[in-house]
Amino acid sequence: MLKRLLALLAMAAALTPALGADPDPCALLTPSEIASALGATPSAGSPDGPTVDHKLEARSWTCQQQAGSAQLFVSLIEFTTADGASRGMAAMLREAAQASSPSGIALTPAPDPGEQAAWGASPEGALWVALQGRHIFSVLLAGELRDTQRLREPLKELTTTGLRRLR
Q: Would the pTM count as exceeding 0.70?
């Protein structure tokens, strides 16, 4: 399920020419912010990326961390333009709205954070996805989770914090 969700997030990305150092998805949220939101101190992050999709013109990065008994994935997708990011977000939402969504998590549009956002949860995961300018940022907590709805606000807080650091 996790690989399919990460593939869905990467599908919506676009390639950005290197203008400097690649973003570090593990630096977008601090261990204390994660611990405060989730009640578990995270392990050191394991960054991955950039993953490049030339056809979609996409670059994405992910940070994976253990947070208690769950896995935390912080993902960033960077687009060449804001229009490209908007199209990527729309494609992601269309895909996630289908009953056979690869992630197994149905996303519902939400008014914030960012310019456009969506929230979803299932027994295996809870996910916020947000669009801001040329970026799609997501925070996914995966594992055998109980009462995933209680994670809505803590994960939204982490998503909001990550978006602020992208500006």
A: yes
